[in-house]
């Protein structure tokens, strides 16, 4: 699940950010904000059914046959949209996360590049910028992650008990219930584990991504240069051959 989500997400972000920077002119620095949010909406919507299945498998000890029965039951009672249950809280968590992450990352990368006077971002710079921006974004959006997980777990428990699934409460109502039961601290449950997971994950992912982009860009440039050199050589050879032929014809005449 992580592989297709990451491929869709990074590809969409890269293309959108490049296009927006060309169109936004003096506001080009804000392009990562909009590109990150838009790319996340697309990838989260496409992966949401798989995310729902994964959450159920983690929260309940069910076989794949039992899980399939639960999913079919939900689809019969609530339709296909039941597969996207929890998408709202997911978007409330992931869209602001992506917007803040990419904006802070690009600004942090530029700042560190100027600070260390490296000319371009190194692997260490991208790693540090990714870890810092991921940490900030994960703290701000943690309450929405708690709500999303709570709603999906409650759905799984209802289906395991063969109870009908009523219309799910809104994100705000779930937040109010969490605050009433556990206080405001309940909205930030699992903060330390989330930071331990998100910060290095963001750092490793973005530094690997940047390294891969640089590697293949250099490879393609060298390939293009090689092709141009070979084309130039072939054109020169063809030109010499044509010149020799023209000279011979002129001498014969």
Automatic annotation (TrEMBL):
GO terms for biological process: mitochondrial transmembrane transport. It catalyses: glutathione(in) = glutathione(out). InterPro entries: MCP (IPR002067), MCP_dom_sf (IPR023395), MCP_transmembrane (IPR018108), Mtm1-like (IPR045315). This is Mitochondrial glutathione transporter SLC25A40. Keywords: Membrane, Mitochondrion, Mitochondrion inner membrane, Repeat, Transmembrane, Transmembrane helix, Transport. The keyword NADP does not apply. Belongs to the mitochondrial carrier (TC 2.A.29) family. It is found in: Mitochondrion inner membrane. Pfam families: Mito_carr. It comes from the Eukaryota. Solcar repeats lie at residues 27-111, 121-215. It comes from Oryzias melastigma (Marine medaka). The keyword Lyase does not apply. One of its GO terms (cellular component) is mitochondrial inner membrane. It is a multi-pass membrane protein. PROSITE patterns: SOLCAR.
């Amino acid at each position: 699940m992580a592989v297709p989500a990451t491929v869709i997400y990074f590809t969409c972000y890269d293309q959108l950010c490049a296009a927006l920077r060309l169109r936004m002119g003096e506001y080009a620095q804000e392009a990562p904000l909009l590109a990150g949010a838009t790319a996340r909406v697309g990838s989260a919507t496409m992966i949401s059914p798989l995310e729902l299945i994964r959450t159920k498998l983690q929260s309940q000890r069910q076989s794949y046959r039992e899980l399939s029965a639960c999913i079919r039951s939900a689809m019969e009672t609530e339709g296909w949209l039941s597969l996207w249950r929890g998408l709202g809280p997911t978007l409330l968590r992931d869209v602001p996360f992506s917007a803040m992450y990419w904006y802070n990352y690009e600004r942090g990368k530029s700042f560190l590049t100027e600070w260390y006077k490296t000319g371009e971002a190194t692997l260490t710079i991208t790693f540090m910028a990714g870890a810092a921006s991921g940490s900030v974004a994960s703290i701000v959006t943690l309450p929405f992650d708690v709500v999303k997980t709570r709603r999906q777990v409650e759905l799984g428990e209802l289906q395991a008990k063969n109870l009908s699934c009523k219309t799910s409460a809104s994100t705000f109502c779930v937040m109010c219930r969490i605050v009433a039961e556990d206080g405001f601290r309940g909205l930030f449950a699992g903060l330390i584990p989330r930071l331990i997971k998100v910060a290095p994950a963001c750092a490793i992912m973005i530094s690997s991504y940047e390294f891969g982009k640089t590697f293949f860009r250099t490879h393609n440039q060298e390939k293009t240069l090689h092709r141009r050199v070979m084309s130039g050589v072939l054109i020169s050879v063809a030109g010499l051959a044509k010149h020799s032929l023209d000279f011979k014809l002129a001498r014969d005449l």
